Amino acid sequence: MKTTINDVSENGLPNVFEELKPPLGELQAFTEASKCLECGGPYAEAPCTLGCPTGIDVPGFIKAIYENKIQDAASIIWDQNILGASCSKVCPTEILCEGACVLKEEGRKPIDIGRLQRYAMEHSSSDGLLKEKETSTGKKVAVIGAGPAGLSCAAELAKKGHEVAVFDRKQDFGGLIRYAIAPYRLNKDPLPKEARMIADLGVTFNMGADINTPEKLKKIEDEFDSIFLGIGLGKDVELSYPGEDLAGVWDSLEFIESIKTGEKPDIGGSVAIIGGGNTAIDVAREAARIGAGDVTIYYRRTEDEMPAYDHEIEEAREEGVHFQFLTNPIRFIGNDQLEFMECQYMKLGKPDASGRPHPESIPGTEFKVPVSTVIKAIGQQKRKGFLNWIQGIDLNNGLINIDPDTGQTSNPKYFAGGDALNGGATAVEAVQDGKIAAHGIDQYLGG
Ligand code: SF4
Question: Residue 196's CB: how many other CB atoms inside 10 A?
Answer without folding.
Answer: 11
